[in-house]
Design a protein that fits this description.
binds 1,4,5,6-tetrahydronicotinamide adenine dinucleotide; 3-stranded antiparallel sheet
Length: about 325
């Protein structure tokens, strides 16, 4: 049985997701957007590459939730993105309203879906999406850690002149300036990173990783990163659909793990056909623990701001 994958938001990331999912033949694609023409136009454009790329899936574009009915996977990118000089947190008010509409749409039509949220500010928006939809916490997850880790690995690979795929690493915490790259949990071709790089260079790379999104926004002037974010979202969807049980850094619901309760934040999780199957607790040293806790504090504060904007989130 072919899977049905709905992409809510057919903008830069939504369109790229549709293309990658088609090429990988992960399932039939429904591109949904309030701007109906964009959804229809992109779906038709990708569909017209079927014979060139040889994939066998259907694509449609729509602005009607009925067309998304009984989706297996939903990836949400609906919302506004940052302009130069803005932080992710500046998007909160607008994107909360949009996410409320999205949650209402998908809970009526696809109550059994696995939902991957990409919209910023990520950790708070994914938590709002879970609360507004009422879906179980194992079925709602946020994508950010895969992207942040991939950026960290890329910058390291350039510095150390090794392929990024030879680097094992992880970035934890919230998807903001307080994210926590983990040099102690980074191995390069089986060797500990700290033996291969001096502190000064490592600090520069950590800083560049934290500001990885802003660097691209500055170049683009209009819009934010979309190729790497889309590739990262697809990795989660694929692990769920094919039950690969990959361990991936994602914004997941924490219920006591890492000493955090009732909050979404970036941690390694196992993704299989039950959604989030396990939260992996890495041992953290003092410094890592402090940085992780600072990041959690920032997520909590932003969630408190969100509850002031919409008291429904307190429920
Ligand atoms: O790591 C991560 N999580 C991220 C997140 C990395 C990069 C960008 N990230 C965030 O993803 C970014 O800050 C935005 O909040 C989202 C989507 O980024 P994208 O670049 O795809 O934004 P676009 O191109 O503006 O597309 C958003 C689309 C646009 O076509 C709108 O018409 C649509 O969202 N939109 C809606 N669709 C459905 N329903 C509603 N209500 C709606 N409102 C707007």
């Amino acid at each position: 049985m072919k899977k049905k994958i709905t992409l809510i938001g057919a903008g830069q990331i939504g369109g790229t997701l549709a293309h990658l999912i088609s090429i990988k033949e992960l399932g039939d694609v429904v591109l949904f957007d309030v701007a109906e023409g964009i959804a229809k136009g992109k779906a038709l454009d990708i569909a017209q590459s079927t014979s060139v790329d040889g994939f066998n899936i259907n694509l449609i574009g729509t602005s009607n939730y009925e067309d998304t009915k009984n989706s297996d996977v939903i990836i949400v990118t609906a919302g506004v993105s940052r302009k130069p000089g803005m932080t992710r947190d500046d998007l909160l008010g607008t994107n909360l309203k949009i996410i409320k509409q999205v949650a209402e749409g998908i809970k009526k039509t696809s109550p059994k879906a696995f939902v991957i949220c990409i919209t910023n500010p990520l950790d708070v928006i994914v938590m709002a999406l879970q609360k507004y939809s009422g879906f179980t916490t194992n079925k709602v997850i946020g994508m950010a850690g895969i992207l942040d880790t991939s950026r960290f690995k890329y910058f390291l690979s350039q510095e150390l002149k090794v392929p990024a795929k030879d680097i094992n690493s992880i970035v934890l915490g919230g998807h903001g300036d307080t994210m926590v790259p983990m040099p102690n949990h980074t191995m390069v071709k089986g060797k500990p990173l700290k033996k291969l790089i001096n502190k000064e260079k490592l600090d520069l790379i950590i800083d560049r990783t934290r500001k990885g999104g802003a660097e691209i926004i500055k170049y683009l002037e209009k819009g934010s990163a979309f190729y790497a974010p889309a590739a990262s979202g697809v990795e989660i969807a694929e692990s769920y659909i094919k039950n690969l049980k990959k361990t991936l850094p994602c914004a997941a619901y924490l219920n006591g793990e890492y000493g955090v309760k009732n909050l979404y934040a970036g941690v390694p999780v196992v993704i299989g056909n039950n959604g989030v199957e396990k939260v992996i607790e890495l041992p953290l040293d003092e410094n890592e623990k402090n940085n992780f806790n600072l990041s959690i504090k920032a997520v909590k504060e932003l969630f408190d701001t969100a509850t002031k904007i919409d008291p429904d989130l307190k429920k």
